[in-house]
């Protein structure tokens, strides 16, 4: 199955509504999940090809730091984006995540960040749409970490449903293959939990 290692390559949840609350919630849940990792988890594989739990946590921290740069109007690609370029000791994750999350939420708080046009590898979008993409990214990668470790994050069902609705609109089932970092939609019961339906839409097997 062709699962993506990260979701920064396509507008998975490009919404024009105000995503700041959902973004803060998704980042907070990701942070609580990272903080709950134990030493035996770090080398476990994840649903993201070639990414261990440690790699995925590093990648997500890199994304947070890039989002701080975006919100400030700086060049986000001047910062490391690959997992191997982020060096955090295993016992330092809560502190590192808390600092980056605090900065990311604060820098996106001004309303003007939502209308600023930002150019990313997958196109030029207003800030609100970009932030919506990362609501989905952090939600899905939190699921990836949970799947890899057996942790049970406390999902916000309404947030997950909004992310799923946006992803279905932005990445329909027939839009898969070259240039789209998601595998084919995985069949799942219509009454399955929202987070499992989101994962299935992204090509993961719940």
Give a quick rundown of the structure.
With 206 residues, the chain is mainly alpha-helical. The chain has helices at 20-35, 53-72, 93-107, 127-149, 157-170, 194-201, and strands at residues 117-120, 123-126. Helix content is 47%, strand content 4%.
Walk me through what this model shows.
This protein is mostly helical and 206 residues long. It has one domain (20-201): Up-down Bundle (Four Helix Bundle (Hemerythrin (Met), subunit A)), CATH 1.20.120. Helices cover 47% and strands 4% of the residues. Strands 1-2 form a two-stranded antiparallel ribbon. α1 (20-35) runs parallel beside α4 and α5 packs parallel to α6 (194-201).
Essential attributes:
single chain, 206 residues, mainly alpha, Four Helix Bundle (Hemerythrin (Met), subunit A), disordered N terminus
Topology record:
Blueprint: H1 20-35, H2 53-72, H3 93-107, E1 117-120, E2 123-126, H4 127-149, H5 157-170, H6 194-201
Antiparallel strand pairs: 1-2
Helix pairs in contact: 1-3, 1-4, 2-3, 2-4, 4-5, 5-6
- The CATH class is identified as Mainly Alpha
Detail the poorly predicted runs: 1-16
- Give the oligomeric state of the chains in this entry, treating copies of one chain as homo and distinct chains as hetero: single chain
Sheet/helix structural class: mainly alpha
Tertiary shape: globular
Estimate what percentage of residues fall within beta strands. Answer: under 5%
Instruction: Determine the CATH topology.
Output: Four Helix Bundle (Hemerythrin (Met), subunit A)
Number of domains: 1
Using the 3D structure, state the CATH architecture: Up-down Bundle
Mean pLDDT: 87
Rounded Rg: 16 Å
């Amino acid at each position: 199955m062709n699962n993506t290692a990260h979701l920064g390559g396509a507008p998975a949840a490009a919404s024009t509504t105000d995503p700041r609350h959902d973004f803060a919630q998704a980042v907070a849940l990701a942070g609580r999940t990272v903080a709950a990792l134990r030493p035996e988890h770090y080398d476990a594989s994840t649903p993201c090809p070639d990414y261990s739990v440690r790699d995925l946590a590093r990648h997500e921290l890199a994304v947070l730091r890039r989002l701080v740069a975006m919100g400030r109007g700086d060049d986000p690609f001047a910062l490391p984006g690959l997992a191997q370029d982020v060096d955090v000791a295993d016992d330092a994750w809560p502190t590192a995540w808390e600092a980056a999350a605090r900065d990311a939420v604060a820098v996106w708080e001004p309303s003007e960040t939502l209308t600023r046009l930002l150019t990313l590898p997958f196109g030029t979008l207003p800030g609100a749409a970009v932030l919506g993409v990362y609501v989905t990214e952090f939600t899905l990668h939190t699921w990836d970490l949970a799947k890899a470790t057996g942790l049970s994050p406390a999902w916000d069902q309404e947030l997950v449903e909004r992310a799923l609705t946006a992803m279905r609109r932005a990445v329909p089932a027939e839009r898969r293959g070259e240039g789209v970092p998601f595998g084919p939609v995985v069949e799942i019961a219509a009454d399955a939990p929202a987070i499992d339906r989101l994962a299935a839409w992204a090509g993961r097997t719940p």
